[in-house]
User: Fold this.
Amino acid sequence: MPTLRQLEYFVAIAETLHFRNAAKRVNASQPTLSGQLKALEDRLGVQLVERGASAIMLTEIGERILEIARRILLDAGEIREVAAGDQGSLNGVIQLGLPPTIGPYLLPSIMPDLRRHYPDMKLHVREELPETLPLSLGHGKYDLIIAPFPLLKEEFHSVALFKEPLLLTVSRQHRLASRTRIYRSDLVGEDVMTLGPGYYLHDIVVALCEEIGARVRLEYEGTSLDTLREMVATDLGVTFLPGLYVKTVLSRDHGLRTLRFAGKKLQRSVGMAWRTTSGRMEQYLELSDLVRATIERKFPDMDPGHASRVHRRNSKTVKSS
Assistant:
């Protein structure tokens, strides 16, 4: 039978289609990874991966075995979670996934509290596009994710953390820079830049621009929040930036101004989620409470997700306070 390690290597190769990236993901050398894949193929008596000069791809049997391998690794992970959950406080390695628009601006603020409360926990963090995070959580790549809500997945338990304002960002020379509040009508005909597809911020901004008659500059889609900031500084247009980024990064940039809408807020909801089958339900609820409390203390202008624990089972939504 294949070993769990061999299956983990194979899944990493299948998901990255790149030996070096797969080796980095599983903390192995590239020769070790290649050798274990060959050993797995020899043990099964089939070819799982086609190795080309410039690319690799899965064989037909490799695609079928991939789904089975994911299930096996997920079940093995849940066995470890059940055993660890019976020990009380969180310990060991926890795989956390979150988007690049949240991670770098949230983690530095919450990590000191996490280390103090969970000294035996080792948090392994990876960034991923928000649209693929739920799929990766379902496949067992992560134990937890922090992501924009809603996720609307029956197999996940979701907990709201905070509501983050999205702030209009303009250069100091822009016609709106002297305002303290703006109305949606102020952006009619305005050039608005945003992140590319795959980010919830993209969807929110595109929908808003269609509603109010602003122009989305798709040719200037940013690859990061920093890129958007730099484009605004050169007067290519305006953009909307999340509150965490504004608080931790943009507050030091005196060449830009941030503005809020008068009336109805423009914001995104952010929460934490894990699989309902996890054996660490109570520990993850405790962890989410700690994260929420830390955010309330360090970012008082964020709307807290007060005890809004939401989980979905059997097609019903259950809320508890």
User: Anything to note?
Assistant: The chain is about 40% helix and 25% strand. The two ends are 47 Å apart (CA to CA). The domain at 4-82 is CATH 1.10.10.10 (Arc Repressor Mutant, subunit A). The mean pLDDT is 86.
